[in-house]
Amino acid sequence: MRKNISGKSPFEPIIGFSRAVRVGNAVYLSGTAPAGAKERDAAGQTRRIFEIAAKALAEAGASLQDVVRTRIYLVHAEDWEAVGLVHGEYFSDVRPAATMVVVSQLLDPAWRVEIEMDAVISDTESGAAPGSTIT
């Protein structure tokens, strides 16, 4: 079963994308930019991204605790530590697989960071993803 989660962007139907898509237990969150926070520094923009992401994940029936992978895109390499520290505030216990890369520019030149997330909703009784084995 597929469920598309809208972020209410007017560009979603034009470009053909969703804020997130849930298929079974998996949730794929599109690249999330710091909408409404472009005047903030890298850490502030990252916190805004986590606010947006948490809302979309919740609508899909997931949470930040279910995130298994992140992809972080930075415009300025020197922002790696500030962004990484915020990532750690949310994920120090979860510790998803993560990649951080530097790109030449994001869609809005004021954006310093954009983050994608993938989540797997756990079996609530065992804490394991369905079909997995706990050893």
SSE inventory with pairings:
Elements: E1 2-5, H1 12-16, E2 20-23, E3 26-32, H2 42-59, E4 67-74, H3 80-91, E5 97-102, E6 113-120
Parallel strand pairs: 4-5
Antiparallel strand pairs: 1-2, 2-3, 3-6, 4-6
Helix pairs in contact: 2-3
Describe the structure.
The protein has 135 residues and is of the alpha+beta class. The protein has a single domain, classed as RutC-like (60s Ribosomal Protein L30, Chain: A, 2-Layer Sandwich). Helices cover 26% and strands 27% of the residues. Strands 1-2-3-6-4-5 form a six-stranded mixed sheet, with helices on one face. 27% of the residues are buried. The C terminus is likely disordered.
List keywords for this structure.
135 residues; alpha+beta; 60s Ribosomal Protein L30, Chain: A; six-stranded mixed beta sheet; 3 helices; 26% helix; 27% strand; globular
